[in-house]
Design brief:
Number of strands of chain B: 0
Number of helices of chain C: 5
Distance between the termini of chain B: 23 Å
Largest interface: B-C, 77 and 73 residues
Number of strands of chain C: 2
Helix content of chain B: over 70%
Distance between the termini of chain C: 63 Å
Helix content of chain C: 40-55%
Order of helices and strands of chain B: HHHHHHHHHHHHHHHH
Radius of gyration of chain C: 22 Å
Number of helices of chain B: 16
Oligomer: heterotrimer
């Protein structure tokens, strides 16, 4: 496959269709974040007051869970580039564990809110907090499904050093989900 | 025409054009009533002319979609239509039911129509675009189900392509969401909320799948571009349509009693609804630029490019202009809405039906690929007359709308509705003028079918 | 050699994305249902108001008027006509009753529906009920 050497490295890596989708998703989140920031500016006291009710410790743990999960996805891709299918499969499995940890911790947070009768209509802060985190939460669920498919495929030996576009594409989606959280966490939980 | 049974589409297309002419005649009546308020009152009050205008629009577009399906599915599936007999039967059932309904609107008071059609048994009449008697609605469901059965079985027994699959999903969605028209709760807020599950999920949802698949078919046939490329793009376009349009439904939930978070969700997602239309424009022009053949049917290519552009302008741009909640607060229910509605419907749905008719009709009438040069020139003239006059209709209504918003909604001393309508009268006269030009364009379009002559030929290879 | 983008990825994004957002729409619809009792003025949804809505529909009022901004734009918005007429159902009834059968020359004309007292009251009550719905402060002013 000497053609691989003479052709420039494909950019962006993976499937362009998915990158279009990723850009669209990032656009939606970006607009939502901007709307949040803009609204907060006119409602600082309200936002500060209710931000204080959030569980920052759990959110920090969530950040670690997602970061680790992304790290494992990167490791999986590095492994497959060395044709180490078994190792790659293990890394993918660990990434799914990290993602599930996120989901469980987030559901704990939501259960707490629900028990206090907090929902989308409670106030403007909670509307943004629940909308943004729930929208992200659904993307994490989708991410778990994608990672699981990738795990199955890697296990079956579908990806090789020469051909692992699907893995790279799926990984790109997961990194997007992680990136969104890395903005969401400081913006909503921390910044005062 | 590769398969005999494709010819049933001809019936549907002829009915479509006939009803289109009727629609525009009543549109002109309404336009005149806007400025000569008691024109044809009380024999044809404004609301009757309006329901005839809008219902004819919807029905002729449905005839167009069904004709498009009957034409392209056998060709794509590489097999004859499952039952041409059923297709012809349903044509007549739909046409007669539709005609009776329109006559019902015109000949008896609406309340009387409700009484004689037994509306009280299952009240579904009296809502915008869904004015049809309940029995007509049931008839529509039956026609739709038989149509879907026919098309689905044709696809099943033949070659399955992305185009037919997407078309089928769109058409099935159309039928499923129409069922919400039977749900008419006493609670006005619920009524309005679910009404949009028909209207929005149709025109900003499944109808976009229908439009995109027909456009893809016409582009494959007229450009010769590789099917794989066109089908890939089709998937991306419709993905973006539903990803933005499903939650985009929220832009109808701003002011009807739904919770406030819809102001945010609806604004954000519907602001992105122009994206699939933008992609369709780039896609259409790209495919034509990269074409491998010079198809001799010039008007068909013109309609295909035109529909992408006008849909983007009317649905995408004009839609975006009033979709954000802070703006919509002032423009909701004004001539801005009417401006957007007209260009959006014309660009997205009228033009795609005219595109497939333009492509398919010559062959169904025995030509090899297209009409004579004279006929094509006339048809292209009609394209420009209708399209440019529609642009002007939209511009005039936008002008009317801006002034209306300023005087009635925004000003410190807001004027009453009727006073404002008086003040923006000049725009309505100009709109009516543009409407007359539109009708002339449409009549020229019809006339072009009767211009004969030697079929136009060109050097096909690029 | 790998392609720039594949049809199967595009197809998966279409199916996955559509299902994802349809489920989200269902979730938000469910939440909307929960939020309604506080906003939809259902406490005033009496049998008389129900009758008024039925009359509104079988006479196709929405064919000329808008209600909460939806409908036709030939005649005034009626979602706040109750307030515009000084919080008076009598004033609304008087207007409907007074429409001349032949219309008003040169002016946009409203039909005479020949409602009886009970029907007039029902329509007026329906419009009063509509004006009590929480529409996030729409319309911007009394003119509708």
């Amino acid at each position: 496959m000497y053609m691989q050497d003479t052709i420039k490295t494909k950019y962006p890596p993976g499937d362009l269709a998915l990158w279009i989708f990723i850009c669209a998703e990032l656009l939606v989140f970006a607009i939502f974040f901007a709307a949040y920031a803009f609204t907060r500016a006119s409602n600082i006291e309200l936002f500060n007051q209710y931000q204080a009710t959030l569980n920052t410790d759990l959110a920090l743990l969530n950040t670690i869970a997602l970061l680790s999960s992304s790290y494992f996805v990167v490791s999986a891709i590095i492994s497959i580039k060395e044709n180490k299918q078994k190792q790659s499969t293990l890394f993918l499995f660990l990434s799914i564990v990290g993602a599930c940890a996120f989901l469980i911790m987030k559901m704990t947070e939501y259960t707490h809110h629900m028990s206090e009768g907090i929902n989308l209509t409670t106030n403007l802060f909670y509307m943004f907090y629940l909308s943004l985190t729930f929208f992200h939460f659904m993307h994490v669920i989708l991410g778990v499904m994608i990672l699981t498919v990738l795990w199955f495929n890697t296990r079956k030996g579908l990806y090789t050093a020469d051909n692992h576009d699907g893995l790279v594409s799926g990984g790109a989606y997961w990194h997007m989900v992680d990136l969104v959280w890395l903005i969401l966490f400081p913006l909503i939980y921390i910044m005062r | 025409m590769k398969y005999e049974s494709q010819s049933v589409a001809k019936l549907y297309f002829i009915a479509a054009i006939g009803l289109f002419v009727g629609q525009i005649v009543f549109g002109l009546v309404m336009g005149l009533q806007y400025v000569v308020g008691d024109f044809m009152f009380p024999e044809i009050p404004f609301n009757v002319a309006r329901m005839v205008h809008t219902n004819l629009l919807i029905v002729w577009l449905l005839f167009g979609f069904m004709g498009a399906a009957y034409y392209l599915v056998p060709e794509e599936a590489e097999t004859e239509l499952h039952s041409p007999m059923l297709a012809k039967l349903m044509f007549w059932v739909f046409l007669v039911a539709g005609a009776l309904t329109i006559l019902g609107y015109l000949l008896v008071p609406y309340a009387t129509l409700a009484e004689i059609t037994g509306n009280h048994l299952l009240p579904t009449m009296g809502r915008e675009f869904l004015e049809q008697p309940t029995i007509t609605k049931i008839g529509i469901v039956i026609v739709a189900l038989v149509f879907l059965y026919n098309i689905a079985f044709t696809i099943l027994k033949g070659r399955k392509t992305v185009i037919t699959l997407v078309l089928l999903i769109g058409l099935a969605g159309l039928a499923i969401f129409f069922l919400f028209s039977f749900y008419n709760p006493d609670n006005l807020v619920k009524d309005k909320f679910y009404w949009w599950f028909v209207v929005h999920l149709w025109v900003e949802g499944v109808w976009e799948l229908i439009m995109a698949s027909i456009l893809a078919f016409v582009l494959i046939k007229t450009t010769g571009v590789d099917r794989e490329i066109i089908e890939k793009w089709l998937y991306i376009i419709i993905a973006m349509a539903l990803i933005t349009g499903l939650i985009g439904t929220g832009h109808h939930f701003f002011w009807i009693g739904a919770p406030e978070y819809w102001l945010w969700w609806g604004s954000i997602f519907s602001a992105l609804e122009p994206i699939p239309f933008f992609m369709m424009t780039v896609f259409a022009f790209n495919m034509v630029n990269k074409r491998r053949i010079n198809h001799p049917n010039q008007p068909a290519v013109l309609w295909a490019l035109g529909t992408a552009v006008m849909a983007f302008l009317g649905a995408g741009v004009w839609g975006f202009m009033h979709t954000l909640a802070p703006i919509n607060y002032y423009t909701h229910g004004t001539q801005i809405t009417a401006a957007h509605g007209h260009m959006a419907f014309y660009g997205a749905y009228v033009m795609i039906v005219l595109a497939i008719i333009s492509y398919a009709m010559p062959m169904m009438r025995g030509r090899k690929a297209c009409n004579s040069a004279a006929s094509q020139v006339a048809e292209m003239w009609s394209f420009w007359l209708m399209t440019i006059s529609m642009v002007f209709i939209t511009l005039f209504l936008t002008g009317a709308g801006i002034l209306q918003v300023w005087l009635q909604r925004f000003s410190d001393e807001p004027m009453s509705f009727m006073v404002v309508q008086d003040k923006i009268e000049v725009f309505y006269w100009m709109r009516e003028g543009a409407g007359v030009v539109f009708l002339i364009g449409l009549l020229l379009y019809v006339y072009s079918f009767f211009i004969g002559g030697e079929e136009r030929t060109v050097e096909e290879k690029v | 050699m790998s392609e720039v983008f594949t049809k199967s990825m595009a197809r998966n994004i279409f199916y996955g994305g559509s299902v994802f957002f349809f489920l989200l729409l269902l979730a938000l619809t469910y939440q909307t249902h929960e939020a309604w009792p506080e906003r939809d003025n259902h406490e005033n949804l009496t049998d008389q108001v129900r009758h008024g809505k039925e009359l509104w529909e079988v006479n196709n009022c929405v064919g000329c008027h808008s209600l909460l901004g939806e409908g036709a734009y030939f005649a005034p918005e009626l979602g706040n006509v109750y307030q515009r007429y000084g919080n008076s159902t009598e004033a609304i009834k008087a207007f409907i009753m007074s429409r001349p059968k032949e219309g008003i020359e040169g002016r946009r004309s409203m039909p005479q529906f020949n409602f009886n007292d009970e029907e007039l009251e029902a329509v007026a009550q329906f419009l009063k009920y509509a004006s009590g719905i929480n529409t996030n402060d729409w319309p911007p002013n009394i003119q509708g």
